[in-house]
Amino acid sequence: MKTIxxxxxxVTSFSSAGASIPQHQQSGFEYDSGEYILxxxxxxxxxxxxxxxxxxxALSNKSIVIYDSTSGQVxxxxxxxxxxxxxxxxxxxxxxxxEGNGHQNNINHSPLLISASQDGTVKVFDLxxxxxxSAITTKMALPNEQALCVSLGYGGTLAAVGTxxxxxxxxxxxxxxxxNPTGALMGSYVDAHTEEVxxxxxxxxxxxxxxxxxxxxxxxEDGLLSVYDPSQPSEDSALLSTLNIxxxxxxxxxxxxxxxxxxxxxxxxxxxxxxxxxAQKVSDVGGMGLRGLLSDAVGKSGFSVEGSSVExxxxxxxxxxxxDQDAQQSPSDSKALHLLAGNSEGDGYLFRxxxxxxxxxxxxxxxxxxxxxxxxxxxNGIGGQRLVTGGEDARxxxxxxxxxxxxxxxxxxxKMGSGKVKQVKRDDASKKKGKKKKKFGSPY
Length: 444
Known about the structure:
- Helices cover about 5% and strands about 40% of the residues.
- It is mainly beta and about 450 residues long.
- The strands form eight sheets. The chain has a five-stranded mixed beta sheet, with helices on one face.
- A hairpin with a 5-residue loop joins strand 28 and strand 29 (about 385-390).
- The longest helix is centred in the middle third of the chain and has 11 residues, at about 290-300.
């Protein structure tokens, strides 16, 4: 395992209270009233096809910040994007609407952004305009129904939204007859879950014969993960499999050469991997002792840490982490399942998760001073990728995992600020509490 410093970092929101505290007096565990990042998303859906990438960050003050990874600058702020905490943001595919909307996309990243919020709305923002108003706003159908997650499928023409009322609702985002999409509600899946739907994810999958189709995975507080074929006319006919994970779900992700596998992370800080089509569990990945296994793997790699090593899981990803700069493998050959974990001191740990072993790859040090909330990938400009993390310290950090790139010098406006933020649980993001000290534990 190699310790690396951030390639570059940007502060998305400054805390006046935290900034007034001298840096040498800041312990890293004292959270003052300030803003923090809840969700981030990259505009680059295919790093090999993009020469620059934007990252959208949803902040706890209900605003959205756009960061340009090419310039290392925050280029856009959408203040008060929602009336409630923002649950998730996602960019549309670059090709969405290129023929039907009358606009020529002269930028090589998506200009459209979708967001879901606990205020019960889903909004689409057009970043080509200077307006902070949404181009589309859709309200969930039931009273007090919160939009907790969102995913785009079929080239961005269909949005799936998981809600607090145990429903998965669908929004029509198609262009037709030269008219703009309205985001109208098309219907909902209502039988799959009995509690809040915390994750939805469209994914293109293929079988052994090379035939591809789009599936939708949904995950809930009820511990169930369901996979559907949304092209089918009814919820019953669309259901392909149901996996009983056994604990409230926080993160899901497809993996494998044909996306035949799915990984599930829970609020109990456990991880399991499944073959979703047969609903067969492949591994419990250490069960309740996973954090101990990860910490032991860090220790056995010859890396010593003070205090706790791994305290919580952030997410899993099927990617070429590009950690070995001498490797001659093609990107497809070197893809593997990776897990990002962290601790409350702001450290991140990237692991490669193989069937027979856990390999610690990188220790992400010196970027964050609070828990890491989310991550994504951006193009590095030379055909590879950099990892981007967003945390409860309101920072976005870029990490060059190969160690071959040198960061440009940053002006004072781009350097990491000293503002502190308040740490809260994900489910209580809208509730402000008094100061507290917290040294260990999950941000969720």
